[in-house]
Amino acid sequence: MASSSLPFDPARIAPEALPALIERCPKAELHIHIEGSLEPELIFELAQRNRVALPYASVEALRAAYAFTDLQSFLDIYYAGASVLLTEEDFEDMALAYFHRAAADGVVHAEVFFDPQTHTARGVPFATVMNGLTRAADIALGELGMSVSYILCFLRHLSEEDAFATLEEALPYRRHFIGVGLDSSERGHPPEKFARVFARCRELGLHIVAHAGEEGPPAYIEAALDVLKAERIDHGVRCLEDPALVARLARERVPLTVCPLSNLKLCVVPTLAAHPMKRLLDAGLVATVNSDDPAYFGGYLNRNFSETFGALPSLGVVEAWRLARNSMEASFLPVGTRRELGQQVDAFFAAAGG
Ligand code: ADE
Ligand code: ZN
């Protein structure tokens, strides 16, 4: 029998059954930078295909460089890795590799960031990026049954003028992305810097998200909400430093796309055991689990779940259900589809412990 507030009885699910349940449960991934899914093997393959010289002798040497001390130390290597992407086929291959991995992890819907300025600054046309990504998304839907939407991210270390120029280039491809986000170096680049370009994006009917409260202070989360009108906050873990902000995020049901392995690898938390995932859920926040840059941070979506649940014994089956459900609620899918996917999550847990 299910309890009154849950669609299943948690007592009927043995703790040993939880890892397999989490692995197979339908989930949405809402915070993945497609350039961050570029595995070292593919970086080397594309470098060879495109005759791009890499400052690393081997896949192993490149992987060995993935020892980050903060966000910037990661971004330096991440932008260098993206330099091998030149043709539509490269973008398609990269995205397809991610979609296959995500589908194997039970991802039924993904909202995927891309960083056009990283490519247009190197002379790669916006059309090349978007055409390759769009082809991959069509294949994901047709062959994997996984729906994909793209979110164009502006690089916050660049100027608002540059963001406006990027938006202009993107407009002929408006139907290929559903929203805009803000990523790259957070500290010293507050949301206010992009107030006007995000206002224009809202006029265009685009969804709005922003990285905030990863390394930056809670005030950046507030500015993302108040100035950019963000509908979702990417990371947002530093909200816990401001109880009034936590209360607001909970009251307004603003989702946080949290990325535990990223937080560990970029030293946002000292250990996974110290990760605030349980505290975020207990505060009533619509927190979700995501992989951010899985090729750089040691794992795709299921690895983020398994390592986090392994490190935090206070996370159990109710939290697993809640996180999967939150991922559907927090997506930008039509309301009816969100409800349907939420019911699929409920049915999955009910079948395991009805
Ligand atoms: N770009 C790719 N990953 C990022 C992250 N975790 N924070 C900010 N910008 C990013
Ligand atoms: Zn991110």
Give an overview of the whole structure:
An 8-stranded parallel β-sheet has the order 1-2-3-4-5-6-7-8. The protein has one domain: Metal-dependent hydrolases (TIM Barrel), CATH 3.20.20.140. It has 354 residues and is of the alpha/beta class. Helices cover 49% and strands 13% of the residues. The chain is built from 17 helices and 8 strands. Bound molecules: adenine and zinc ion. Zinc ion binds next to strand 1. The site of adenine (ADE) has 11 residues, from helix 4.
Strand order of the main beta sheet, please?
Answer: 1-2-3-4-5-6-7-8
From the coordinates shown, what is the CATH architecture?
Alpha-Beta Barrel
Overall mean pLDDT: 97
The CATH class, by name, is Alpha Beta
Beta-strand residue fraction: 5-15%
Identify the overall geometry. globular
> Could you please say which CATH topology applies here?
TIM Barrel
How large is the radius of gyration?
19 Å
Approximately how much helix is present in the residues? 40-55%
Which structural category do the helix and sheet elements fall into? alpha/beta
H and E string:
HEHHHHEHHEHEHEHEHEHHEHHHH
The total count of helices amounts to 17
Low-confidence stretches: none
Q: Tell me about the largest β-sheet.
A: 8 strands, parallel
Q: Could you tell me which ligands this complex binds, including any ions or cofactors?
A: adenine, zinc ion
Query: What is the CATH superfamily?
Result: Metal-dependent hydrolases
Number of domains: 1
Give the beta-strand count: 8
